[in-house]
Write a structure and sequence with these properties.
This protein has 354 residues and is an alpha+beta fold. It folds into two domains: 9-284, Beta Polymerase, domain 2 (2-Layer Sandwich); 293-350, Up-down Bundle (Methane Monooxygenase Hydroxylase, Chain G, domain 1). It is 52% helix and 14% strand. The protein has a seven-stranded mixed beta sheet with strand order 2-1-3-7-6-5-4. Helix 4 (169-204) packs antiparallel against helix 5 (208-239), helix 5 packs antiparallel against helix 6 (248-313) and helix 6 runs antiparallel to helix 7 (329-350).
Length: 354
């Protein structure tokens, strides 16, 4: 089952700003991708450690620093010193169970967003925290694993596709968030296929494994709702331009992300109602099957009750029984039993009990 809640007991009693990584992907090595671009040119490089402080020297260019694998606290401390990030921001980046939120530190915005992905060949979804820091002409992004989540954005920058090379850092932040929200729909489509399949299973073949799958789906719903619901307010604040770092031209694009977020939330709520009803359908299906079995057993027992009575009467060891010496007595009793069974079956069918 996917991990719904993470433990934070290791931070108990520590002062605010303590940099302790609370995630699971400790074995992943840090990979730092630096992209600098303007409308005319773009430069990219991939490093694994800092040789010098990555200060944004050219104010006319947009600098994007993407950090994959944040278990090494030293890299985060280096960036914090270079960009003068607040210690609580660095702490939140390492606490990977944050809910989606946005915080304004005047010189930069700190944004937390969750990305949802499904494991290939595994029937589960995984939520990963993405931290974005938006400055005047730079964007810092942090995520736990080494998966190349933002490769489509880098390809658009390199090939100058769209208006990303002509816009500023706020449009880059929008592009990253838009990619994450669009990936929600990929996972939701896969989740929807599972829900539709389970709707048929709980009616046709309600077995104990079906109940386990229903609980599995409910766990997925918790992850989806915790990731999507707070995101609506985050995007709404960006759309309202509460920070001067968001330009008027970019606010329109954030409105589009907001619309996509609302659609995803509506889809999740629909699936949530369906999954909540699957348990009731499962219990009803099991109860119906049990009733059918009990109905058959009851009919069989009812049919054999008079037969058992006749067999018991003629099984008594009295010497002077009227039919005891009759030559055709055995066949007559069997024929009478068959008539009793036939009459009872016809009566049951007439009453539509069978």
């Amino acid at each position: 089952m996917p991990k719904t809640f993470r433990k934070r007991s290791q931070k108990a009693g520590l002062p605010p700003g303590s940099l302790i990584y609370t995630g699971d992907k400790i074995e992943d090595k840090t990979r730092i991708t630096i992209v600098e671009y303007d409308e005319q040119q773009v430069q990219t490089q991939v490093i694994t450690s800092w040789a010098e402080c990555p200060v944004v020297a050219n104010k006319s260019r947009v600098t994007w620093i993407d950090v994959s694998g944040i278990a090494d606290v030293g890299h985060l401390e280096k960036l914090g010193e270079c960009f003068k990030l607040h210690p609580l921001v660095l702490e939140d980046i390492l606490n990977v169970d944050q809910r989606p939120k946005i915080e304004d530190y005047e010189d930069y915005l700190y944004i937390v967003i969750k990305t949802i992905s499904s494991q290939p060949g595994v029937d589960e979804i995984v939520a990963e925290q993405i931290s974005l820091i938006l400055g005047a002409n730079y964007v810092l992004s942090f995520h736990e694993g080494n998966g190349d989540l933002f490769k489509p954005i880098r390809d658009r920058i390199i090939t100058a596709k769209g208006r990303i090379r002509k816009a500023g850092a706020d449009y880059l932040a929008y592009s990253l968030m838009d990619l994450i929200v669009d990936n929600y729909f990929v996972t939701l489509e896969q989740f929807g296929d599972q829900v539709e399949f389970m709707e048929d299973e709980v009616v046709r073949r309600p077995v104990p494994a079906t109940l386990q799958t229903v609980h599995h789906l409910k766990n997925h719903m918790i992850i989806l709702r915790r990731s999507l619901w707070p995101l609506r307010e985050v995007v709404a604040r960006l759309e309202r331009r509460e920070s001067p770092l968001i330009q008027d031209a970019t606010a329109v694009y954030f409105k589009d992300v907001y619309d996509h977020t609302i659609i995803a939330i509506d889809t999740v709520e629909t699936y949530r109602d369906i999954v909540s009803g699957l348990l009731d359908i499962y219990l009803s299906s099991v109860s119906n099957r049990l009733n059918e079995v009990m109905k058959v057993l009851t009919i069989i027992a009812t049919i054999f009750m008079p037969l058992t009575f006749l067999a018991g009467v003629y099984g008594m060891n009295f010497k002077y029984m009227p039919e005891l010496e009759w030559h055709y007595g055995y066949f007559a009793v069997l024929t009478f039993m068959a008539l009793v069974v036939g009459c009872m079956v016809l009566y049951f069918k007439k009453r539509k009990w069978i």
